[in-house]
What does this fold into?
Amino acid sequence: MNIALESIFAKLPIMEIQTTVQSHTEPLMKMLPDPRMKKVLENMILGILGGQTPVITGMARQSGKAEGETWAVAKSIYRLLGNKRLETKVIYQGLYQVGQKVVESENPDYLVVAVDPVNFEKPYTKALEGVSVVHKATPPDLAGHARLARGYPAITATVVNTKVPVISYANWFSYQTADFISQNKEVEQAFETTDRLYLGRNIRFVGDSGLDDQKMFAQVVKLGREFVFRVSHLERIVEVYNDRGDYPHLLRPPTLGKKAKPQPRIPRIFAN
It folds into this structure.
């Protein structure tokens, strides 16, 4: 490491950040089957924060500051991820308990939960297990349009109105594996898992236009939760009822000068 980098790292509040990480991840650390795993997992988190990357060598580069230390840190991360004693469900459970701890300490009136379907790209992958064809808009193709690429779809649900956003659901899946049912089912799991983790709390799900679907509305209503999704199907006619009158109000979005085609009747949406 050169002198310039050493002087920069010497000024960073490494101990303070490390203390914060240890406090924040305490529920997860307690669930690890081997105490030695704590140090490796801590290095991973510090590496992600410092390098802003999920790539293992990138994490190790941030955690290993001494000459030749990067490869040793990377090997320890690979060993941890390949350890059969550390099950995926343990990491998920610890992650969700971290979120419950944060929510309990801050105790907000409402939990605003952003549900976000996202696609991860693996551009040079051909034979990796379960690799799928996904839709990617960023970066676009040479014509500025979205494109198809190799990768994996994922669903995350994140509580965004706490000081530190916390995960209430995360799953990286594949269209090619036998356990895949549908992407809508994955979104439903995000709703149900969040509801189960935070029983007794008010939850408002928010989402982009990809969740503008009657099935999504019904799933949230079934759980007794609220939702705010960005509208993309402007052709719909919605009957809105409220307690102030007995007559429905028909809400017709503008048709931009074109005559709207007759639409089938859809379930009523009740609003206060």
Notes: The two ends are 63 Å apart (CA to CA).
